[in-house]
Amino acid sequence: MRLGLFGGTFNPIHHGHLRAGVEIREAFDLDRVLFLPAAVPPHKEVRGLLPFAERLKMVRLAVAGQRHLQVSDAEKKNPGKSYSIRTVQYVHRAYPRGVELFFIIGVDAFLEIPLWKDYRKLFSLCHFIVMDRPGYRRGHLADFLYQEISPDFKSYSRKGQYLHPGGYSVFFKPVTRLEISSTFIRRLRREGRSVRFLVPEAVEEYLLKKGFYGE
Ligand code: ATP
Ligand code: MG
Fold it and tell me: Is 178 in the pocket of ligand 1 (CB under 6 A)?
């Protein structure tokens, strides 16, 4: 079993996330990609961030009927991105017969990994698939890996692979650049403009019905 874990706030999920999920699943021959909306600490009010349950619901609507794309509420119990370690350990426990995990993340978010709890342990629990993002080159990732994580990565440049001494790898993966962000979608909504074709129809319908992100 090869399982991709695609974390994010998904406020809301959009076609950039979904297309990246599809391309990565195919490129790495993953059995499925699990979208993991991040919870936020209940006491922390983040402006404009919808409740976990609503963001989860929209991911559900987005992947409905897609056999290889699924959604998990695993992060509900572990608020904050610093707790990815717990999520990864939790998913390992959920597959007692073994699972190979691929943590899917944009290079922008990956470079913040030193802020995560126990982040070093992650490199002996899962692979990382690091997607390129506008403004970043592969060199940014390589420098970061050697300087901040370990000087002992082995590089296989043709495959975009950096093998960690712990046995797991970091892969750099360019995906089709759809210049869509949740921030942009929220702004369109605030300005009373359409979000059509940026998010799946079911998501659009739901957020219009609920009046999400409007003024
Ligand atoms: P926001 O604008 O609120 O930051 P976002 O669109 O960046 O939202 P996130 O939920 O923050 O979405 O992103 C989740 C993950 O998806 C991150 O790893 C991010 O790098 C990646 N990602 C975001 N937008 C895209 C896109 N258009 N194509 C591919 N990956 C994306
Ligand atoms: Mg973002």
Answer: yes
Q: Where does 2-179 sit in CATH, by number?
A: 3.40.50.620
Q: 117 alpha carbon to ligand 1 midpoint, in Å?
A: 21
Q: What angle do CA 132, 19, 90 make, to 5 degrees?
A: 80
Other residues' Cβ atoms within 10 Å of the Cβ of residue 195? 20
Instruction: Delimit the domains of the chain by residue range.
Output: 2-179
With H, G, I as helix, E, B as strand and everything else as coil, classify residue 27.
helix
Q: 94: which residues sit within 8 A by CB, 6+ positions away?
A: none
Residue with tokens 């129809």: 201
Rounded distance between C-alpha atoms, residue 153 and residue 140, angstroms: 15
Helix (H) or strand (E) holding 33: strand 32-37
Dihedral of alpha carbons 17, 21, 23, 28, sign: positive
Please tell me the predicted confidence (pLDDT) of residue 5.
Answer: 97
158 C-alpha to ligand 1 centroid (Å): 26
Query: Which parts of the chain have pLDDT scores under 50?
Result: none
Predicted local confidence at residue 78, as pLDDT: 78
Q: Quote the pLDDT of residue 71.
A: 97
Cα–Cα dist 128/87, whole Å: 14
Residue 68 CA, ligand 2 centroid: distance in Å: 23
Q: Which residues pair with 71 in a beta bridge?
A: 35
Tens digit of each residue's pLDDT (9 = 90 or more) over 96-136: 999 999 999 999 999 999 999 999 999 999 999 999 988 89
